[in-house]
Amino acid sequence: MRRLFLKLYRYVYCLKSQKNKNHAFMPRNQGLPVGSPFPGLVDADAHMDLKEHDGIIVLFLSTTCQACIEIFTTINSLAERWPSKKMLLFIFGDDAEFRQVQKEHQIEIPMIPYEQTQFELYKTAIFPYVYVLSDQGIVLAQDTVNTVEKVAVIVNKGIKGIENVQFTGTGGKKE
Fold first, then answer.
1. Alpha-carbon distance values, 1 to 86, 90, 125, 148 (Å)
2. At the top level of its lineage, which domain of life is listed (predicted)?
């Protein structure tokens, strides 16, 4: 019954979002500033070895957000676009929805539950949102995203930052 309700909810939400597609997408000012360290990588490090990759893509998604659901459907292929980057998902939603999304879309990327109590720590309360980090966990690019294409734009912007800036072991710029 819950599954039927979720599918019905997504269908109705999709209809509403189609109606509103004529309105311009307005990103909101939020997120950690570019150049700042991304908090909590010790927790994330339990899910991956960050030093084996030349950057990290962090997506904040919600189980009830229509744009997020569209991103979930292509998340594995999205990660394959940048094989040298590690992708990590912070997922906002109840545990049952979290597991259903993971199973339904066969997501192979590490997923970490994201709680409302963490909104202030990560300065992220609007979904979907993406961060591109250096291998030391420094924010190189970040923005609100509403499509897979917008995710790609921000990730590519961050990749240019990785190519143009070298960082010390503590995250600061080399002189």
1. 36, 27, 29, 30
2. Bacteria
88 has which bridge partners?
58
The predicted model gives 91-102 an average pLDDT of 91
Q: Report the predicted TM-score, pTM, of the whole model to 2 decimal places.
A: 0.74
The answer to whether the CB of 107 falls within 8 A of the CB of 75 is yes
Q: Is 91 helix (H, G, I), strand (E, B) or coil?
A: strand
C-alpha closest to that of 86 among 50, 114, 113: 50
Going from the N-terminus, what domains does the chain have, and what CATH number goes with each?
A: 24-164 (3.40.30.10)
The pLDDT of residue 175 is above 80: no
pLDDT at 135: 85
d(C-alpha 59, C-alpha 157), whole Å = 15
Label residue 101 exposed, middle or buried (CB < 10 Å: 0-12, 13-18, 19+).
Answer: buried
Contacts of 95 (CB under 8 A, 6+ apart): 113
Cα–Cα distance measured from residue 11 to residue 1, given in angstroms and rounded to the nearest whole number: 15
